Structure formats: C-alpha cells, structure tokens
C-alpha cells in the first residue's frame, strides 16, 4: 500500500469523526487518542512513519547525499 493512500484513508477517518463535533481535535491529537483507544489503529502512523523513512533513505542513495544517508540510517536503526 502506498504512503499517500494510507494518509488519505487516515484523513477520511479523521474528517468523518469531526463532522459532528463543535470543537474537534487537531489531526495529531486525534491520531494519538485513536492509538491509545484502539491498539490496531497504531498500524497507520507506524506504517506511515516506516514508509516515509524508507523513501527518505532511497532519496539519500539516489542523490548521493551522505549526510542524509547517515541521518536516515540512524533513524532506521532506532
């Protein structure tokens, strides 16, 4: 599944949840609350984060950007 598709699905779920609220949470607060309330929801932010890291790692290789490469290696191993 592509990163942008996961993000689109997450945004749709967020928008559906705030339609009836007077003062809705912002997206990051909503994601945090959903992860705490529904352990399976943690899949979305985890998958998004890993895919973005992988894409940034590939970018560092394609551009020959050593500093970005080292930075991404550090993020991938932590």
Description:
The chain is an all-alpha fold and 78 residues long. It has helices at 3-18, 27-37, 43-63, 66-77. The protein is built from four helices and no strands. Helix 1 runs antiparallel to helix 3 and helix 3 runs antiparallel to helix 4 (66-77).
Straight-line N-to-C gap: 23 Å
Give average pLDDT, whole number.
87
Order of helices and strands: HHHH
* Separate helix tally: 4
The biggest beta sheet is recorded as:
none
Helix/strand class: mainly alpha
Radius of gyration, in angstroms, nearest whole number: 16 Å
Based on Cα principal axes, name the global outline: elongated
Short recap of the structure:
With 78 residues, the chain is mostly helical. The chain has helices spanning 3-18, 27-37, 43-63, 66-77.
Summarize the helices and strands and which ones pair or pack:
Layout: H1 3-18, H2 27-37, H3 43-63, H4 66-77
Features:
78 residues, mainly alpha
